[in-house]
Amino acid sequence: IFGFGGGREDIWHPEEDVYWGSESEWLGKSRYEDHNSESLENPLAAVQMGLIYVNPEGVDGNPDPLKTAQDVRTTFKRMAMNDEETVALTAGGHTVGKAHGNGDASKLGPEPEGAPIDDQGFGWKNPAGKGNAEDTVSSGLEGAWTTTPDRWNHTYFHLLLNYEWELKKSPAGAWQWEPVNIKEEDKPFDAHIPGVRQNPIMTDADMAMKMDPEYRKISERFYKDPAYFEEVFARAWFKLTHRDLGPRSRYLGPEVPKEELIWQDPVPTVDYSLSEAEIDEIKTKLLNCGLSPAELINTAWDSARTFRCSDYRGGANGARIRLAPQKDWEGNEPKRLQKVLEKISEVRSGLSKKVSMADLIVLGGSAAIEKAAEKAGITVRVPFLPGRGDATQEMTDAESFEVLEPLHDGYRNWLKKQYSVQPEELLLDKTQLLGLTAPEMTVLIGGMRVLGTNHGGTKHGVFTEREGALTNDFFVNLTDMRYSWQPVSENLYNIVDRTSGTTKWTATRVDLVFGSNSILRAYAEFYAQDDNKEKFVNDFVKAWVKVMNADRFDKNI
Ligand code: HEM
């Protein structure tokens, strides 16, 4: 065991706001653009709705270990696992336990939520034999992978590499691989019947560990060097079970390993503090450095929006927006970003304290928002929590950051391309990942539109004559019955004056959903009220600061 960190939370309800895929049927599969594994819709990792990884019988149920290898590689890469970690985890995982398919899967009762009340939530009731133990049916494959499936040993690679394997059907009718002419002493003990041995099995994914040339090299190395296999497995297992705990500062308990690992996205600590007066002085410098308020706000937003509360990765801390791969992401508008970073660096070099770029990027956004509120006639102070560090490229696992690339951002009214999922649904997913509520989403969208922060400077949803002032105009005009909303193309609408017939503004689905969805409309009407102008600004600032500080686990906020 490499170590243990506590700190996971229990939840008590299904996560209905998580995007699991657009399919509405179990084992549905409409997440590929074409037939290759890499076209799997990002950020999904499982190949089919309802599976954890890949289909154990082969791609679409057709055994072919070389094809399955490609699916496994894509799936595990999305979990930030490289080839070596993938082989170690699959082999190590399948060293213990067994697959269950000793019966007829079609005889199983309905799933737990669909089962009658007297099933008491157990579901998939099995009417055959004992209904459990040797009669269990789950995946439908049947058998163990190793000679002693009740304990850790190294027989997985011995069996996989030293025997020929042929395709067979399990008693439940699933494809599985079984060895040709296996010696009696190599056969696994039956899990339930003393003195009986059974054939071992391999899933198509296990066979990939032998047939794929890259996986095979690793399998052979592990077979020859069991100590090395154990070391890689222990580390990969620790990664698998801790990767969604976030930065090391969130780990609890005495068994947390001392070693800092690159997949923990380390960020150096800073040794300065800033007084309110110093913060004000820096804000003035940032506002006068030649950048527009929208440029400052966009950069702060882009640096923070990568945060996802599913695994606590991303966020403004570390200022990884300066580094590959983030600096080149289309969503970050690389040219604008480059310019903004250069200007902020200049401000930085003129400061007496070595304030981090991460802090300055966030502070630039705060300063610009305060100015924009002032333009709307409201004085507000955007709370700022200094102490972010700047990561280096060496501290950054660039490849594993690729999956954090924003492919859409409703907050900046942007889609990289048209997806099968509607833009407003993608906005919900982003909102959930940022840990925001529906009212927070509403107030942020309304504010960001009038601040002119759309990607590429488009004007969709900018329902105001006073762009750059933090007014509630977005909501006022969205809910104004003077206008009608006319579709132009799939994700574009004209906002037309009912009397004159002239087009006043343009909008996307993300803008219009705040008028069409009854719950969101209620929030929009609330913020449109004349007597809520100040509340709108204050709520905007609160939601904004929540995003900026989403990854400040070092501060326990
Ligand atoms: C490469 C992709 C993988 C595939 C296709 C796969 C497939 C399967 C299947 C079909 C079963 C049998 C389930 C049942 O019938 O009860 C199973 C069981 C199991 N898997 Fe995997 N698996 C994969 C990777 C992993 C990984 C990465 C781990 C852990 C590190 C793991 C650990 C286990 C364990 C411990 C069992 C036995 C469960 C039991 O005894 O009830 N598997 N796997």
In round numbers, the mean pLDDT is 95
CATH hierarchy, class of the largest domain: Mainly Alpha
Low-confidence stretches: none
The helix/strand series, from N terminus to C terminus, equals HHEEHEEHHHHHHHHEEHHHEEEHHH
User: How many distinct helices?
Assistant: 17
By DSSP, the count of extended strands is 9
Estimate the global geometry from the Cα principal axes. Answer: globular
Strand order of the largest sheet: 7-8-9
Question: What small molecules does the structure contain?
Answer: protoporphyrin IX containing FE
Describe it:
This protein has 557 residues and is mostly helical. It has three domains: 37-225, Peroxidase, domain 2; 276-404, Peroxidase, domain 1; 408-532, Peroxidase, domain 2, CATH 1.10.420. Helices cover 36% and strands 6% of the residues. It has 17 helices and nine strands. α2 (83-93) packs across α6, α8 packs across α10 (357-375) and α13 (438-450) packs across α16 (518-528). It is globular. The structure holds protoporphyrin IX containing FE. Protoporphyrin IX containing FE is lined by residues 53-54, 56, 72, 89-90, 92-94, 96-100, 138-139, 141, 203, 205. InterPro entries: Catalase_peroxidase, Haem_peroxidase, Haem_peroxidase_sf. Belongs to the peroxidase family. Peroxidase/catalase subfamily.
